[in-house]
Amino acid sequence: MDCPDELTLDLWLADALPSDEAAAVAAHVRTCATCAAAEGAAQALDVELHAALALDAEERAFVSGLELASTWRTSPSMAGPSWGWIALAAVVAGFVAWLVAAPTFGSAVAVAVQVGLVTLLLNAALELVFSLGQTLLDLIRNPALGLSQPLLALLALALLFWPRQLIPQRSTHA
Fold this sequence. Notes:
The protein is elongated. The longest helix is centred in the middle third of the chain and has 33 residues, at 83-115. It has helices spanning 6-13, 19-31, 33-53, 57-65, 68-72, 76-79, 83-115, 117-140, 150-160. Helix 2 crosses helix 3 (33-53). By secondary structure, it is mainly α.
């Protein structure tokens, strides 16, 4: 057998190869000095990583003082309802609400389509515009204001509400 590639060696070291292929790689490593050296280097790296990640005595004392096991393990009577059951209940309640409300909204949409929703909205918008226009004309024709010519009164109102940004500001500095 030729030397296996690096990935095959890594999979063999991790016990992730099928048994027949793992046996062939193991037999090769026993007879090949290069592959045996690669296995030794990988095992040395593994030992070095475990040593680097291991907790020292001070860290172990700190972690043991936290009593993590007692805070993470609560009795079933103290745990209360789990979030999974609450989420399931919310989904079921939403589904039931939809089943109850959907026919009502469906019939309202059907009526709006029959009447013509766009026509209804356009009618309301035009009614609003015309009522505002009528109110403005009534205000202009009011004899108490003394405005006998409505067009001049409309021009006066337009100039009164004209945006002030268009009028150039006079400089106060000389």
